[in-house]
Specification:
The protein has 230 residues and is α/β, with parallel strands linked by helices. It folds into 2 domains: 121 residues, Response regulator (Rossmann fold); 96 residues, Arc Repressor Mutant, subunit A (Orthogonal Bundle). The protein has 8 helices and 11 strands. A hairpin with a 2-residue loop joins strand 8 and strand 9. It is globular, with a radius of gyration of 18 Å.
């Protein structure tokens, strides 16, 4: 995996250095930044495939940094949170993060999550094949370009959001449970996945629905799960 470069952003030098050791031991190149402002600078200077980003930092915190990064890039972001409350995790997912890890964390868990996000992102980014476009009224999925468009205008999704939309559009009309969505998109068992999936569904609706409370495309089937309306 030495072709991958990960940006580690944390105001604590000890944590930056520890994560660098873990990732380098697995053949991953590491670039470090002590806050969000430096992270943005490093992002423009290096070819970065993934960001590990602390929430609580001086100058520009993790939330503001994620928002700024998402204005121009869709690379995976793993949020680091020192708190146990779900609110931190949900907020991170709401503003565009793809995953989260709570401090203190296991090195093995960190490596597993980094590998999972890199594998998913690079698979999407290097996909080659004949152009195939699926249309659902004004919503289109271009599999070759890995792009979703609404009324001809590209919709900016995070990698996780795209995977969910791709799954549901390619299987329009079929209802997927929350656990099924999580297992197919995250490639992990879907235990206690309700909040995580619900946050991403809400963000997707905000991007493709005129009225997110009365969705035209992404429907909930109460007590069962979600489907993309044909």
């Amino acid at each position: 995996m030495n072709q991958y470069t990960v940006l580690v952003v944390d105001d604590e030098k000890e944590i930056r250095d520890a994560i660098e050791i873990y990732l380098k031991n697995d053949g991953i190149t590491v670039v470090k930044a002590k806050d969000g402002i430096e992270a943005i600078e490093k992002l423009h200077e290096h070819d970065i495939q993934l960001i590990i980003l602390d929430i609580m930092m001086p100058r520009l915190d993790g939330i503001a940094t994620t928002i700024k990064i998402r204005e121009e890039k869709n690379i995976p972001i793993i949020i680091l949170s020192a708190k146990m409350e779900d609110t931190d995790k949900i907020l991170g997912l709401q503003i565009g993060a793809d995953d989260y890890i709570t401090k203190p964390f296991s090195p093995l868990e960190l490596i597993a999550r980094v590998k999972s996000q890199l594998r998913r992102y690079m698979t999407l980014g290097t996909y080659q094949g004949a152009e195939k476009v699926i249309r659902l009224n004004d919503l289109t999925l271009n599999e070759a370009a890995k792009e979703v468009a609404l009324q001809g205008e590209p919709v900016k999704f995070t990698p996780i959001e795209y995977r969910i939309v791709e799954l549901l559009i390619k299987n329009a009309g079929r209802v997927y449970s929350i656990d099924e969505i999580y297992e197919r998109v995250w490639k992990e068992p879907g235990y206690n996945a309700e909040n995580t999936v619900a946050v991403h569904i809400r963000k997707i609706r905000e991007k493709i629905e005129i009225d997110a409370k009365n969705p035209r495309y992404l429907k909930v089937v109460w007590g069962i799960g979600y489907k993309m309306e044909k």
